[in-house]
Amino acid sequence: xxxxxxxxxxxxxxxxxxxxxxxxxxxxxxxxxxxxxxxxxxxxxxxxxxxxxxxxxxxxxxxxxxxxxxxxxxxxxxxxxxxxxxxxxxxxxxxxxxxxxxxxxxxxxxxxxxxxxxxxxxxxxxxxxxxxxxxxxxxxxxxxxxxxxxxxxxxxxxxxxxxxxxxxxxxxxxxxxxxxxxxxxxxxxxxxxxxxxxxxxxxxxxxxxxxxxxxxxxxxxxxxxxxxxxxxxxxxxxxxxxxxxxxxxxxxxxxxxxxxxxxxxxxxxxxxxxxxxxxxxxxxxxxxxxxxxxxxxxxxxxxxxxxxxxxxxxxxxxxxxxxxxxxxxxxxxxxxxxxxxxxxxxxxxxxxxxxxxxxxxxxxxxxxxxxxxxxxxxxxxxxxxxxxxxxxxxxxxxxxxxxxxxxxxxxxxxxxxxxxxxxxxxxxxxxxxxxxxxxxxxxxxxxxxxxxxxxxxxxxxxxxxxxxxxxxxxxxxxxxxxxxxxxxxxxxxxxxxxxxxxxxxxxxxxxxxxxxxxxxxxxxxxxxxxxxxxxxxxxxxxxxxxxxxxxxxxxxxxxxxxxxxxxxxxxxxxxxxxxxxxxxxxxxxxxxxxxxxxxxxxxxxxxxxxxxxxxxxxxxxxxxxxxxxxxxxxxxxxxxxxxxxxxxxxxxxxxxxxxxxxxxxxxxxxxxxxxxxxxxxxxxxxxxxxxxxxxxxxxxx
Length: 701
Prior knowledge:
Layout: H1 24-36, E1 39-43, H2 50-59, E2 66-71, H3 81-88, H4 99-107, E3 112-117, H5 123-136, E4 140-146, E5 155-159, H6 170-185, H7 200-209, H8 214-220, H9 229-242, H10 248-254, H11 261-273, H12 276-285, H13 294-301, H14 312-320, E6 325-327, E7 334-336, H15 339-352, H16 355-375, H17 382-391, H18 393-406, H19 408-417, H20 419-424, H21 428-441, H22 449-462, H23 466-482, H24 486-502, H25 506-523, H26 526-542, H27 546-560, H28 567-582, H29 586-602, H30 606-622, H31 626-643, H32 651-667, H33 670-681, H34 692-695
Helix pairs in contact: 1-2, 3-4, 4-5, 6-8, 7-9, 8-11, 9-11, 12-14, 12-15, 13-16, 16-18, 18-19, 19-21, 19-22, 21-22, 22-23, 22-24, 23-24, 24-25, 24-26, 25-26, 26-27, 26-28, 27-28, 28-29, 28-30, 29-30, 30-31, 30-32, 31-32, 31-33
């Protein structure tokens, strides 16, 4: 149950977990409490099934409530909880406001059920955020899952215990269902003919020994295809006898508690059924905080004694044993481990003395991924680079945090390498967090510091914090000049021009772009040169020099075209479309603006999407398509709410948006305007596909 990628998942409920069994009383109890109280926390041990129960409760809660789901399992740093919730809700706020401000604004005047799944490792931060949101939003209800209460004033704790055992208990039903599923997954022509079905008393006994813990049952089920329930019961009994308090040799690893020893025993039991290579792979896979690919696994995990060993079969076996979960279609396959299983693997990794080496290999793999994305950004792989970085977000975050703890210069370089993910693909807040943290922890003499400074400046500009952006850009330029760093000089000068442009200082901004372009060309910084030209073009348009602006925009498109880039070219198409709109050639403007919009949509460039929608709406109303214009304005308002400050406060953008709304309202009766605007405002944008109405004029339903 992980977030899907797209412009806006909106935090919608994930797909229903397959094979939900039992738990009727627990679901109804939680639903009843949630109807009466504003916050309910499902509390229970790891592996007891809290996430599945939360999903069923949310799915069956009152239809008047919007349901929003945020998975916090992979958030290792409490400081990122607020950002994780913002991202999980599909928001891309680009300002420097607090998470509470952003979420309060987004959820205001709405009835929302917010599910915060897996809070136990960041309880303090979750409690602070939940309390602030509940105080500010009367229409909000929160359903959380955690191994311990959060301690929020509004909280009602609903304990989640093991499944009922006995001949008619939920535990038996779950075990039977999972045994059959294991047989079907293995291609067994007679999946019902397994030993467990021939030994009902032993099956009941097995569930009793496993204490009705769902995860323990899930892990035991695949083993019943190769052993009888009686054999497994005997082995479990032997293990439990060994795990007495008088047996310190095993207790130091399992940390057995009076309750739920069966779960730990079952995990250890599954561990014993693995081959030595599978056990080692299990331990090494625990370094991935979220999902991972086969390629990542092969790089990170294939050190001795697995060096040169084909891990495909070992991974497939762990999937069959329910240790690893497989996700996604064959062409985009990913894998992950449940938290409790990962924790067990992490204990073994620590015991084996491999933790530091594996964390370093994990860091190196994702540093390389970030560097590859940066070096190949100007080219045809931009959409693929965005999708890859989005899928690996949790791993990139973990790698950056590891760098900050152990190697600040590496953090500086990696945070700068991800510039494309931060400001081209709508992740400015998190980018700013890591860039500022790296700059604060890194020695001032580090060679990569100037680069991180200008990246931070560009990110701050896009957040609307122009004063900070100018400060960072100036620091970068001074450092680059002292160290004779030509690429950083070009980029820092461009960053100064961008900040000046967005705060309305057109004269100084124009001078900065004129200086930056030859610096970029001399340094061989093609992206910087193209962005300077595109920004220069936009600025000339704002100053009324339309012909010069047109010439520069066409130059951007022509120079970027051979690279098959879509991101930089989208700026050129946007300027040309805006110029045609300003000149009164609305019909000619629309194709250029659609081209720009499609590129920005593919890259999740929310800021670019928003400004292009505003101009496309103006072209639409000037072309006599007022209904479509109202719809586009509604969609634009939806995106601006996620971005933050509308039009970033840039005077010319604000004026263009105001003019468009005035003309559209004048062309339509008020009820018609509100209806079409509402249709755009509420459009589901949860997929990567560009909505059809952006390609074709808006059609009335």
